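TL;DR need structure tokens for one chain.
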Amino acid sequence: MITKFSSLYAGHVDLGDMGQEATPANERRYPNEHLTSVFEKTEALARAMDERGYYALWLAEHHFQHEGYECVPNILMLAVHLAHVTRRLRFACGFNITPMWHPLRLAEDFATADILTGGRVIFGVGRGYHTREVETLGGPMLDAEANRELFEEQVEVLMKAFHEESFSHHGKHYTLPPAVPYRGYELREITLVPRPLRRPVECWQPIVSASPRGLDFMVKHRIKGIIGGGAATMAERPIQAYREAAARAGVNLSLGEDLCLGIFFHLAETREKAIREATPWFEEHVKMFAPLGFVPGITEAQVRAAAQRGDWAGAGIPTLPDFAKTGAWFCGPPEEFVAYLRGLQDKYPGLEYVNVSSSMGTPKAVMLEQLAWFAREVMPAFGTSRS
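>> reply
TL;DR here they are.
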């Protein structure tokens, strides 16, 4: 049963012009003074969500994005601040991109945030998808197998550091600790100081390809999965596959259990009005994400066309109504969204978490309006309203 509603904010600043006739993604460049507005915008969203009974605000780690799309480089530092200006809202790492970190530094930072916020930060790990970010910060991204190999070893280190009083690790990428003399003895083991107070650590990871290897790894470490970014159209296969991976490990899960389903949404009095209002933001989403492989069903020729101003219809680029038909995006009145979510709840009886998010490019004022409307007219149907 759905009981916990959250929202993802990847960190876009208000962009000004938006849509297929607006500035191409690769030509956007904002001054530092505008890029830093992401922090005030995040705080406004957090305060509003806290007041309206949301479970968590998911934040994304990204770097070097002068285009203004994803401008939060350190989730944990921001989460500590946000926890101090809110009362109950949790802050989720969607995600800490481990190939850009030393795993022990990441473990220390999370443990510190866990303590300083009284357990209100939710840990999350990911492999990354921006070559500019991952390769610049020392991790592999062009070599997908090297990226996965490094990620898996880093997660092994993280879990040892979180959950063992003292530990050692000997792998391809890390020997922890090194065998060095220290204060009269040879170092054999180390202890993470501090460790998180709340153990086992709740950890989440995005499910993208839903490969057996990836899902088996998640289940091994009891990592929960997010099927997000508007991937509701693909939900059934990864939901089934995650449950099957759990069964292979001897864990019995209901369909949807230990998973979160992400849906882009825009509410209006009618479906037609919602689509009309959200189309510029949807088109900005396509401009940004299509070259990165996160717009399902788009061809290489359409990716090239989306990168330019011009006639998208002539190129056959999928439209917002196309994606709304699949369920990846919801556009319409609140009562129809309630019915849609109840249908998901019936189909996936173990589903507890749903992430409802505004599209890339949506202005702050609209995001605040949509979060308030959803909390007022959708959440009470699921017993999740809070004054």
